[in-house]
Amino acid sequence: MINVYVSPKGDDANPGTAAAPLRTPLAARDHVRGLRRDQVDDDVTVHLAAGVHRLNQTLVLEPEDGGVDTKTVTWCGAEGGGSIVSSGYPLSAWQPCSDELPDLPAALRGRVWVAELPAGTVVRTLYGPQGAVPRARGEAIKPHKVASDDGSLPVLYGPDGHIRHRHWVTKTGACWHHDRFGFPAGAIAPAADLAEAEFLVIPQMQWTMNVLPVKSVDFDAGVARLAESCTYPIGNPPCAPEGSIWLENSFSVMTPGTWVYHASSARLFYCPEGAEPEPEAGLEAACLTEFIRLEGGGEQAAVTGLHIRNLTFTRSNRFAFHGLTGRGIQHDWEMHDAASCMLRLRHARGCVVADCTFADGGSGGARMDLACRGNRIERCEFKNLGGCGVVLCGYGLGRQYANRDNAVVACHLHNLGQHYWHCPGIFIWQSGDNHIADNHLHDLPYTGIVCSGRSLYDREGVAECSALIDWDAVEEQCGAGYAHTVWHYGGLPSWWMREPLMHARDNLIEYNRIHDVMQVMGDGNGIYISGGGGGNVVRFNAVGPCPSPTMAEGIRCDDDQHHTILHGNLIFGQHGHATGITLKGVNRVTNNILALPLKRPDRGMLSLETGPLNGSVIKHNIIYTSAADQTFVGEIRIHGEGRKARLRDTDSDANVFYCSADLAVGQRWLDELQSFGVDLQSSCDDPGFIDAEAGDFRLRDNAPALALGFQALPLERMLAAKPSRVD
User: Fold this and answer.
1) Tens digit of pLDDT for each residue in 379-436?
2) N or C: which terminal CB in the chain sees fewer CB atoms within 10 Å?
3) Chain centroid to CA 335: how far?
4) Do residues 312 and 78 make contact, with C-beta atoms less than 8 angstroms apart?
5) Could you report the per-residue pLDDT of 661-708, keeping only the tens digit for each?
6) Where are the domains positioned within the chain?
């Protein structure tokens, strides 16, 4: 066994023993490389002592730094915790700002302090003793349409990747744009530092947001222009009725307790909160988005047998990216193969991340990119982060099914997406055969878990994911010159033709506890599956309560998603425009409880949204409502043309449709179904919960639902508050 010791109080000239530790992780890596030339067959442990280990460059661990055969290399923190890896650097030499700062609100004059930083420094996050310090942000701006410069219609990419103009252009020629918007008089102040500012934008499609630099503001015309394009055209999304754009990082919107950074002069300005005359001690900026990267040389030369244990990762910079690059993964919720998380596995195999904490960072937590296989993230906590908790990201649409067989288990993920509000807690994209289990996800601005392979077939490489497509593989699979017909026109045969290229397949998502999600954005879910190939199993998850007014679905099989099994899930207490389960394809829904999920009765608790759904199986489910005007099953067609989705086209039977407010509601619904020859064994009687109204969904021993073949759910495990660390 090789033991190497690292302490913030050590010295890189030391031998790395417990009595004479090294000081930096980089020196420890190089020291281990030297030792292993003679002792390659030994296990290695690098011990990071309690204290703050500061990084100013990414620590890259390559195949030579990993295990050999059954031998492992472990980087671990001190027993009892306290081993912190940070990219924060302390800010000192604060001086009262002597500049006039004419754009500053009058009440803040004389209260602003400034720190001079090295030229070229990038500051997107600031931290204090209590965590992240907010950047200056203005009130919400409600945009309006503006005309193009030459009167022509702009190229507008819709959510399906197709160019469209419907609803986005007025008869007078004013329209929504990706890169500009009109604003009301007075909504933006004519400040001198707007070139340093950024706009936070929720565009017309309320499931995405962007953080984009300012290009110019024409106050006479009332038009602001962005230096980069939004994922979708700017608009007024339902989730932000008071305004969907916010200006940040300008003196004109500064308030006590916030900061502004001017990159052109490398000066950081801060206004202390309350009556404090000076900045509090302990303010730090962050220099890295990625702290440690396990970097293999491709699928055939992976990093193997490398373990990261009992470390706390904190104080990272915000990862900057924008829409319409062609490299964003579904709806630009994240970026493909990017340094967007503090810990990154890239071409890694058989590696373990356990008992770690990822907290108070501007980037995400951990990600597994490209050829990552057989890795585990377990018993970790992810909290107060700017992006996602965990990302699993494979290759674009094509033959490379190399990101697979990984596990994310027993983790606690909460208060994420604090910079990018659309980031899910766990994001699986073009990655399959993974095990996502026993995680606790809550207090998120958007969706809990996403499993997706969605790609937009734009040969120009501009729309989402389109720059990642292997077009040779597509044409080999689908025919030369293949022009994609969206799935709801092409039907299931079209999906089967493309399915071998869609690798978010055969994932097992089970026993996850999800609640209080969808706190900011709109049209989101507890668990979301879309364009992911076949064989995904979503079972024994509990979703609820989710009291957000913008909640959309508990579990959704969205566009281009077929042959998924949704079994034994409990979905309850959904508000907003929510359904319990939504289907847009041919899938199997069995033994689920959909209970009291809606505050609005106009959508079904089970929503069938794109048809026909012949081949779907919907059996042994309990749909329970206490509202007499509640719809049990909604039957509509959101996409395409022709016949809407209908329950009568599915193999539906042995379900319970119960309304506690009026028993006749369930009977009328059941009578109609049975007139079409379906649900002949179904019931509208009380299923037999102990106390559904109080949230107790256990079934009595003699419950009628059990007699219909419903199998009692393992609710104790499903509803457990999952631990984030080993006790």
Assistant:
1) 999 999 999 999 999 999 999 999 999 999 999 999 999 999 999 999 999 999 999 9
2) C
3) 11
4) no
5) 999 999 999 999 999 999 999 999 999 999 999 999 999 999 999 999
6) 2-80, 502-507+541-555+563-727
